[in-house]
Structure formats: C-alpha cells, structure tokens
C-alpha cells in the first residue's frame, strides 16, 4: 500500500447529502470527493423536496441514516435551497447538521440570506476543473479531519460508558 492510500484510509468516511439539480455537476462532485479519499457515503438528490424527504426518511429514503453534513445548491426546482436551509435549521433534530451552501452565483443578498439562515459556509463553485477538484479535496479534509462534527442526537441521549 502506498503512502497516499494509507492517508486516504486514515481519514474518516463522512455521510454527505449532496443536493444538486445538475446531474453532471452531481457526478463531478462525487468523482471529486472520491479522488479526495471519500470512497462512499455521498448521496445525491436533485431538488429541495427530495432533500427534505431524505431527511424525513420518507418514501425510498427510509433506510438512510442522517447525513454528517449537507452540500446544498440554492437554485433548485420544486423548493429553493434557501427554503430547504430554513427548514433544516428550524428542525431541532437537524439544526446541528453543517450545511455548506455551494452556488454558481455570488449574489450579495443571497449570500447574506444563507448566513442569516445559519449556513455553515457559502462557497462559490469553481469554474475550472482543477480548482473544483481542489475545492472538493479541501472541503473533505476540513470537514473530515479538522472539524469536530456534532454527535447524532442518539449519541447525545445515551449516557457515556
């Protein structure tokens, strides 16, 4: 096993919900995370209603666990990303989940509104492929190695052993 494979295996595997309506961008994001060392655990949904159905464990999402974090595009069909973000942060069972807003736009009002709704951060999607791959690697390293994520509600309710 080479040094890169060893490093990749030492990183935690996160469960990420990717909310992205562009199928090509969703596929590229999954590839970028895989290149960064996240080999599984990325679930993609293509609109705001589906994202909320996933979080509620409705329909075909019953077996999924709550994600460690959410990457959320704001420009979605059916229900906007800002509406999804607002519902996530208003729900006490989901509010501690980090939400990384990833958008192709840099509208000042939209950015402010995302932060007012308690987005963990707002990142503009890089246009360049190399920059996009670097972006995914940095995100995975930061959220997977640097940040201490909130424990699930189940872990908080159980007494320490």
Please characterize this protein's 3D structure:
- The chain is α/β, with parallel strands linked by helices and about 160 residues long.
- The chain has a single domain, classed as 3-Layer(aba) Sandwich (Rossmann fold), CATH 3.40.50.
- Helices cover about 45% and strands about 15% of the residues.
- It has a 5-stranded parallel beta sheet, with helices on both faces.
- β4 (about 100-105), α5 and β5 form a beta-alpha-beta unit.
- The chain is globular.
- It starts with a helix and ends with a helix.
- Residues about 1-10 have low confidence and may be disordered.
Distance between the termini: 36 Å
Sheet bearing the most strands, described? 5 strands, parallel
Strand order of the largest sheet: 2-1-3-4-5
- DSSP strand tally: 5
**Broad structural category:** alpha/beta
How many domain modules?
1
Molecular shape? globular
Ranges where pLDDT stays below 50 over 5 or more residues in a row are: 1-9
The CATH superfamily title: Response regulator
Count of individual helical segments: 7
**What is the H/E order?**
HEHEHEHEHEHH
Mean pLDDT: 85
Share in helix: 40-55%
- In terms of DSSP E residues, the strand content is 5-15%
CATH architecture: 3-Layer(aba) Sandwich
Which CATH C-level class is it?
Alpha Beta
Under CATH, the topology is which?
Rossmann fold
The value of Rg in angstroms is: 16 Å
């Amino acid at each position: 096993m080479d040094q890169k494979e060893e490093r990749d295996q030492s990183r935690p595997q996160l469960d990420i919900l990717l909310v992205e309506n562009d199928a090509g961008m969703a596929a590229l994001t999954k590839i970028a995370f895989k290149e960064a060392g996240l080999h599984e655990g990325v679930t993609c949904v293509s609109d705001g209603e589906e994202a909320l159905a996933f979080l509620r464990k409705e329909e075909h999402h019953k077996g999924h666990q709550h994600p460690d974090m959410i990457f959320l595009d704001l420009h979605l069909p059916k229900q906007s990303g800002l509406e999804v973000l607002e519902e996530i942060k208003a729900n006490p069972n989901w509010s501690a989940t980090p939400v990384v807003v990833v958008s192709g736009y840099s509208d000042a009002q939209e950015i402010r509104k995302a932060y007012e709704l308690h987005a963990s951060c707002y990142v503009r999607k890089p246009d360049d492929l190399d920059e996009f791959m670097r972006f995914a690697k940095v995100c995975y390293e930061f959220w997977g190695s640097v940040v201490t994520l909130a424990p699930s509600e189940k872990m908080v309710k159980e007494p320490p052993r």
